[in-house]
Amino acid sequence: MGLTGARLTALALALLLALGVAVAAGLALGSAGFDLELIAALRAPRVAAAVGVGALLALAGLAMQVLLRNPLADPYVLGTSGGASVGGLLALMAGASLWLGAGLGALAAGGLLLALTRGALASTDDASPRLVLTGVMLASLCGAVATLLLAITPDQQLRGAIFWLVGDLSGAQGGLGCGVAALAFAALLMVRDTAIDRLQLGSEVAALLGEPVRRLRLLLLVSASLAAGLAVASAGAIGFVGLVVPQALRLLGVQRIRDLAWMSAVGGATLLTLADLVARTVVAPLELPVGAVMALVGAPLFIVVLTRGTR
Amino acid sequence: MTDSMSVRTEATVTPLLETRGLSLHAAGRCLLQGLDWVVRPGERWCVIGRNAAGKSTLLRALAGLGVPARQGEVRWLGRAQADWPAADAAWARAYAPQQAVDRFPLSVQRLLDLSTVRPGALDASAVLADLDAQWLAQRGVMQLSGGERQRIALAQCVLQGAPLMLMDEPVSFQDPAHQARLARWLARLVAPGSEAALIVTAHDVNWIVRTATHVLALTGDGRWQAGPCAALIQAPLLQQVYGCGWRAVGGIWVAE
User: Fold this and answer.
1) CA dihedral of residues B170, B175, B181, B186 (deg, nearest 10)
2) Among A301, A164, A180, A198, which Cα is nearest to A243's?
3) What is the ipTM of this complex?
4) Residues of B in contact with A197 (CB under 8 A)
5) Distance between CA atoms of A107 and A101, rounded to whole angstroms?
6) Residue A307: Cβ-neighbour burial (10 angstroms; 0-12, 13-18, 19+)
7) Would you tell me how many other CB atoms lie within 10 Å of the CB of residue A120?
8) What are the angstrom distances between the C-alpha of A97 and each of A31, A87, B233?
9) Which pLDDT score, from 0 to 100, does residue A123 have?
10) Contact predicate B111/B152, CB 8 Å
C-alpha cells in the first residue's frame, strides 16, 4: 500500500482537473442557463463560497482526525459546527460580529470535546466509541440550543433554521476570505508535516519521538475550530465534507499530511462545489440545502466506516 | 576477576540508566520501593515478576511516560529525566509498548521512517530482514497479524537510534521459532562492548536465560533484587518471585 511517485502525481493532477471542471460547471450550469451577468452577480460568489468552505471543512476534518486519532472525526458530526452555529446566533442576537461568534462557539465546542475525552485519548485504549458518542451528543445539544434560540428570536433578519442546522450556500458570503484561510491552514499543516504525521501514531508515541505534543494538539484544535467557525459563518453547518474527503484520500493510499493537507483542500472544494450544483439543479427551479445533499452522501459513508472500523 | 582494569571501566563509563530511590505505587499498592539500579552499555536486562507486579509500570516510568504515582529519580546518561528536553530525550531512549494501537492506514515503511529520529544509525531493510519481516515493508500496518505488528514495533524501537532501548514483552505474540530468532537478534544488537543497553520484560524463564545478561526481579510487594542472570535465576528466587516450585530438568526450567 501507499501511493508514491508517479501515481501520487497522477492523483494530484486528477484532483486539480476535477476542481477545474467542478468550478466551470458550477459557473456555467443552472436553471437560468448561460448568462454572463447572472454568472458574475450570483453564481461566482456562490461557487467561490463553495470552494472556500469546502476546503476549510475538509481541512478541519483532517486536523480533527489527527487530533482525536479517529478517522471518523468531522466538525459537523462531533459538534464543532454546532458550537459555531450557537456562537453565531448568540453574536447576531447580541449585535456582535457573526464571524467572531461562530469562531468562538466552534472553539468552545472543540475544547469541550477534547476535555471530555481527554482521559480516553491519553490511554492506549480504544477511545473511538466514547469519543464519537460524546461528540454526537454535543452536536445534538448544540442543535437543540440553536433551535431554541431561533424559536425565541422574533428578528426576521436572522437566517432560517435550515442554514444553522444543515447548511445552505444560497446567498453565502465571504468565499474569498474562506479560500485564503484554507490556503493558510493547509500551509500550516504542511509546514508541521513530520510532527503531525507522528501525532497520528498516538500522543505517547509522538512524545517519545520528541514532538511537542501539547503544543501540536493545541495548534490543531485552534486551527480546526476556527476553520469550522469560518465555514459555518459563511455557509451554515454543512456536514460530512471533513469526513468524506480525507477518508477517501487515505483509502486511495495517500499517507503523508504533506499530501493529505492540500489534496483535502482541493477535494473538499470540488466536492462541495459539485454538491451545491446538484442541490440547485436537481429539482430546479427549487433549491435543496447543500447540507442535505452532503448528508445524503456522508451519513451512509460514516456508517460504512463505523461498521468496518469496529469489526 | 576484579582487576584494576575492569574496575576502572565500570567507574568511567557513564551508565545509560540509573535510578535512585525509585518507588512506584498503583491502585493503593506499593509495586516498588527504593530501587537503586544502574544499567551500563552492553547489558541486556530482563525485568521479571508475576502478573500485575509492576513490570510494565516500571518500564513506563523508565521511559518517562505517565505512571499512577512515582517518587525518586531516574537518570538517562547521567542526566535527570526531567532535565531532558523532549527532542533530546528521543536520542537517549526508545520504548516499544506491549501492544501498538494503529488508527490510520500507514505502510510499514512509512511507519519506520517516522520512527527514525537519528537517521543512518541502522538500515531499515537490514533490521526488517533480521526480524524475518522484510516482505512487510509495503504492507499496511493495520493488515498485520499480532506477531508481525510486534516485530515491527521492535524495529521501530531499534531504528529510533537511541542507545537505551526499553521493550515491554517483546515476544508475547511470537511463535517458538521467532522467539528464538529474537533472542539471538537482541544478543547481537546489544553485545559486550556495544554502546547500547536493553531492558525488556518477559515471562518465559528459559527465553530469559537465553536472552538476558542481567535480571531485575520484582516480588510485587515493593522488594526487588538485581544482578547477573546466572546468579539470580535459581530455584529459591524463582519461587519467591512466582510463588511456585521450580526445578531445572536438563538445563530447562520447569514450574511445578
Assistant:
1) 10
2) A301
3) 0.90
4) 114
5) 10
6) exposed
7) 16
8) 34, 10, 72
9) 56
10) yes
Contact A66, A56 (CB under 8 A): no
List Cβ neighbours of A234 (8 Å cut-off, separation of 6 or more): A49, A52, A53, A172, A173, A174, A175, A177, A178
**What domains can be seen in chain B, in order of their start residue?**
4-255 (3.40.50.300)
| Residues B105, A250: C-beta atoms closer than 8 Å | yes
Query: pLDDT digits over A209-244, tens only?
Result: 999 988 998 899 999 999 999 999 999 899 889 999
Sign for the CA dihedral angle at A276, A279, A284, A285 comes to negative
B104 vs A71, A204, A212: nearest CB? A71
Cell numbers for B156, please give them: 521501530
Which residue is listed with cell 473538499? A268
**pLDDT of B229 higher than 80:** yes
Q: Which amino acid is at A98?
A: L
Residues of B in contact with A215 (CB under 8 A): none
Q: Identify the bridge partners of residue B254 per DSSP, sorted by sequence position.
A: B247
Beta-bridged to residue B74, according to DSSP, are B19
Q: Which residues of B touch A2 (CB under 8 A)?
A: 106-107, 109-110, 138, 140
Tens digit of each residue's pLDDT (9 = 90 or more) over B84-133: 999 999 999 999 999 888 889 899 999 999 999 987 778 899 999 999 99
Q: Which of B106, B143, B158, B168 to mutate to test the interface with A (most CBs of A within 10 A)?
A: B106
**Residue B8, SS3 per DSSP:** helix
Mean pLDDT of chain A, nearest integer: 88
Proportion of chain B above pLDDT 90, given as a percent: 83
What distance separates the 2 farthest-apart alpha carbons in chain A?
Answer: 59
Q: Which residue has the cell 486528477?
A: A14
Give the CA distances from residue A178 to residues A257, B19, B101, B164, B238, in Å, rounded to whole numbers and listed in that order.
Answer: 21, 54, 36, 48, 67
Instruction: Give yes or no for A198 touching B (CB within 8 A).
Output: yes
Tell me which residue has cell 472525526. Answer: A73
CA B246 to centroid of chain Cα atoms: 24
- Chain A hits for B63, CB-CB cut-off 8 Å, are 208
Based on its alpha-carbon atoms, the radius of gyration of chain A, rounded to whole angstroms, reads 19
Does residue A198 carry a pLDDT above 60?
A: yes
Instruction: Name the CA radius of gyration of chain B, rounded.
Output: 18
Average pLDDT over residues B28-32: 92
pTM of the full structure: 0.90
Task: State the DSSP string of A283-307.
Answer: TTTS---HHHHHHHHHHHHHHHHHH
CB contact set of B192 (below 8 Å; sequence gap of 6+): B42
The C-alpha atoms of residue A121 and residue A98 are separated, in whole angstroms, by 32
Domains present along chain A, CATH in parentheses = 46-309 (1.10.3470.10)
Helix (H) or strand (E) holding B165: strand B164-167
